[in-house]
Design brief:
The protein has 337 residues and is α+β, with helices and mostly antiparallel strands. It has three domains: 3-137, no CATH class; 160-239, SH3 type barrels; 255-332, no CATH class. 39% of the residues lie in helices and 19% in strands. It has twelve helices and twelve strands. The protein has helices at residues 3-6, 11-23, 31-37, 52-67, 93-96, 106-122, 126-137, 160-169, 240-254, 266-272, 296-304, 316-332; strands at 29-30, 73-75, 88-90, 171-177, 186-198, 201-208, 214-218, 227-232, 256-261, 278-279, 288-292, 310-314. Strand 6 (201-208) and strand 7 (214-218) form a beta hairpin. The N and C termini lie far apart (64 Å).
Length: 337
Amino acid sequence: MSLENSAKVPVEERLFSLVLALLATENGLTKTEILSTVQGYRQDFDHSGDNANLERKFERDKDDIRELGVPLETVQTPGDPGNNQNLRYRIPRGDYELPSDITFSPEETTLLNLAAMVWREGSLSAESRRALLKLRSLGVSADEPVLGYAPRLRVRDVAFAPLNAALGRNAYVRFSYLKPGEEQARVRTVAPLALVQHQGRWHLSAQEEATGIRKTFLLRRIVSRITTTGKSFPAPVGDESARALLELEEVWNAHTAVVDTEPGSDADTRLRKRRGTAAAPSVDGRNLLALHYSDINIVADELAGFGPEVLVVSPPDLRAAVRERLIRTAVDHGTAE
């Protein structure tokens, strides 16, 4: 099937289909089984050719669903340890299900059942149902209901659709953009070059009309409607999406934080599962982790959300940003001294 047809599969559906498939199997799926059966991959899978681009897409998707808190595991094939081609991927149900001590009132249960009915009827496309049948044909057991496991996937930002439309027409766009620390949004007029997802968030790579400078904008910080200016620009040469992802990855690799987490806590578990996280050297027995990040404000929000389970060791500006958020929370709740 052509790339044109596969491009019609929204990224959210591809990620949902991947999560669904990995929940439906107890023993896991190999990369080949995933790429040849799961919606969003199988359209481009070549049974006798080169699937390198498809494999890179799968690697990015793995990072994205892990970033969203989905416990994706790799399992060695018995009798063939160390063979990466035969690695199997799975999502253990026990780690993805709600804790047993969480209960719901009758009213809450009724609302959840109604939501589940809507999810069951509307979220699983015919293509995804056919993918499940293909998995069964491979001998993968999927008899237990899996539709109750709604993946925690972010939907596209409101700005995505109009930006994507303008990108397809090579049309200049205008929007208000609010950067952290600024009180008022600034109007930006840019030529949209690529829309990419990195670390679970959508970004716009664009060139400013006035300066010609290439910049990256986080879609969640666009605070106005997207409007077109009536002007167009020449179609860019080369793979702008690949370039944008490479630039974001370079920023991500260039920023490293060291945090002290409480052993066995939710923070410790989740931060260890972040892509690139590694144990940091400690001379006093502290549980130190080194983790990468792209945006200091986003990671500060995340770390502050763990409360006392995390202490930022370095860098100082991130430590100050987390501290400022914790103090603000205490003041808002009247608990600051």
